[in-house]
Amino acid sequence: MLKLVTIIGARPQIIKAAALSRAIRNNFSGRIEEIIVHTGQHYDDNMSQVFFDEMGVPEPNYNLGIGSASHGRQTAAMIEKLEEVIINEKPDFVVLFGDTNSTLAGSVAASKIHFPVIHIEAGLRSFNKSMPEEINRIVCDHTATLLFTPTKTGLKNLVREGFNSNSKPPFTQDHPGLFHCGDIMLDNSLYFADIAESKSRILEDNKLERGRFILATIHRENNTDIPERLNAIFHAIHELTSESETDIIIPLHPRTSKILKQNLTHDVYSSIQNNKHIKIVPPASFFDTLVLEKNCLMVMTDSGGVQKEAYFFQKPVIILRAETEWVEIVENGAGICTDAGIENVVKAYRYFSSFIPVFPPVFGDGKAAEFICRQILQTEGGRGVNSSG
Ligand code: UD1
Fold this sequence. Notes:
Blueprint: E1 2-8, H1 11-27, E2 32-38, H2 49-55, E3 62-63, H3 71-89, E4 93-97, H4 101-112, E5 117-120, H5 132-143, E6 146-149, H6 152-160, E7 177-180, H7 184-199, H8 202-205, E8 213-217, H9 221-224, H10 227-244, E9 247-251, H11 254-263, H12 266-273, E10 278-281, H13 286-295, E11 298-301, H14 304-312, E12 317-319, H15 327-331, E13 335-337, H16 342-354, H17 368-378
Parallel strand pairs: 1-2, 1-4, 2-3, 4-5, 5-6, 6-7, 8-9, 8-11, 9-10, 11-12, 12-13
Helix pairs in contact: 1-7, 1-17, 3-4, 4-5, 7-13, 10-12, 10-16
The protein binds uridine-diphosphate-N-acetylglucosamine.
Uridine-diphosphate-N-acetylglucosamine binds at residues 10-12, 41-44, 47, 68, 99-101, 132-133, 219, 253-255, 258, 303.
């Protein structure tokens, strides 16, 4: 039996892990054993537990309870505790998703004690190292033994950094294996879309009409923590919703809620309070998010995951960043990077109100998790090849 230690911590990782755990349970249960470790990076019920409940992710075998702190303090605490767990569990592989501080901590902890790392969602680059996620993903890719890329761009980025896309097993950290597998989030969107529609009441509860509202999410630290940027985003939201009389629902990340009043000017803050079209609600569950994405007019977001889910449901997306690592969305004309510019956001909204883009399938077939499991089983490179632990 092959043993995986899967490390999760932030909301999007619980979602991605759901697809992998489901594939293991349904198709590989006698061949792959999975130990789940939650770092505790996200800890509020609506940022963590609700995703386990809705998506049937097994309860973590370990919860490290690290919580929020500065980057250094949080990452260091995770590395210390993850090292202990990995030594204790002696897995064949340590599985990491995406680009959060939990990903960084797992990659450093495992690779330094010679346990091979699998990076799911490898190769993404924003080419903006002022974002913590860019540093996290680069480190994880460069310590990994097996790298699974969601897009062809991901593969190209790795090749540009010296990875060999044709390398053959046995794989090691110095001779890693690269696989293009499609996006593991698509597995979940396809699997849960109808279930979510039957369970969620978010549209009724917020009096939203199908096809007639915008979904927005804002949580990146360079949007929330720089007052000029946060003001510009909310100013634009106020302007475009008043002009068009369109509702917008904003399930707000706790990072943003905590800082909203402090970082917005009195004028912007009171204009959004008095705008009947702006509905600010607590972080939405996975099912509620899927229903909002599926039924909205368009999406406005600085989240990577929400950008992709918008594309899966064929909705145009206004990307509140200067660049995106999901370049296919912009290349296909389904997304516009507006950054935090008031005029850019309003212009993009007007553009997508009258133009319906196309959405060619660039994120695979929704079977990434099964592909990953098969590759792991076929691949030499686990215990005995690359592991001294
Ligand atoms: C993290 C990831 C980001 C990912 C996002 C998904 C890093 C560097 N960033 O950002 O890539 O897109 O998760 O949501 O890892 N907080 C709570 N309750 C919680 C969790 C967080 O109140 O359950 C608040 C705390 O004030 C905390 C702040 O949110 O300080 C930021 O949380 P943190 O986990 O550091 O980063 P995210 O912004 O969530």
